[in-house]
Amino acid sequence: MPKWFRPAAVVCFLMLVVSPVLIANAPFESTMGLVQKIFYYHMPSAAVFLFSALLCGYASVRFLVSRDSRHDRLAWAAAEVLVLFGAITLVTGPLWARKAWGVWWQWDVRLTSSLMGWMIGVAYLLVRKYGGPGADKLAAGLALFGMANVPFIYISVNYWRTIHPTTNVVPSLPLSMGVPFLFCFAAFLLLFVLLLKLRLRLEEHRARVDELYLALEDR
């Protein structure tokens, strides 16, 4: 692993430990009260979820154009991180919604498109595991759909009636809420980088083992 990995892992751990303290000290939202504090984990996980989908799609495009296995490994790693943070988003969202809006789930545009994006990530992983020959290219095609879905998820609240607030909420946060949010966002972003690096490292070792097996068979 690179020299920066362990110090970054320590920093990430400390940030995740400190984040609940900052969240507890943040003021209560006037209408939702205590349950609104789920926002400080829900929103960063959603942002990383969407970024993972973009990265998976971008790496898949590069793979389809160049046939370079390094891009394929990056797409695969990003898809696994996508599924993880997408699951966090889809769990924390209903927990917040049940207390704030009285429903666990509503089939509005953002919720439905987010669920679809997560399911595309799951489908990507299933294709890679069980798709057989050509699964890498088929999965890359799925990743393109997932990437195209990201802008739709983001802007949907601005154009369709939804229980979600519009995209101008985060920029308008007061400093007392904005600082904890940015801290949590930085922690989740660092966690994303670390997990992606670990997953890439695993794929690189797996590719190396495959090369050694092929070399032995050639002998």
Core attributes:
mainly alpha
Describe the structure.
- There is one protein chain.
- The chain has 219 residues and is mainly alpha-helical.
- It has one domain (36-166, 174-218).
- The protein contains 6 helices and no strands.
- It is globular and about 70 Å long.
- The mean pLDDT is 88.
- Give the helices and strands as they follow along the chain: HHHHHH
**What proportion strand?**
under 5%
**Looking at the chains present, what oligomeric state does this protein adopt?**
single chain
Uncertain runs: none
Tell me the number of strands: 0
In a nutshell, what does this entry contain?
By secondary structure, the chain is an all-alpha fold. Helix content is 79%, strand content 0%.
Describe the SSE topology.
Layout: H1 5-25, H2 39-66, H3 69-100, H4 109-130, H5 135-159, H6 175-218
Helix pairs in contact: 1-6, 2-3, 2-5, 2-6, 3-4, 3-6, 4-5
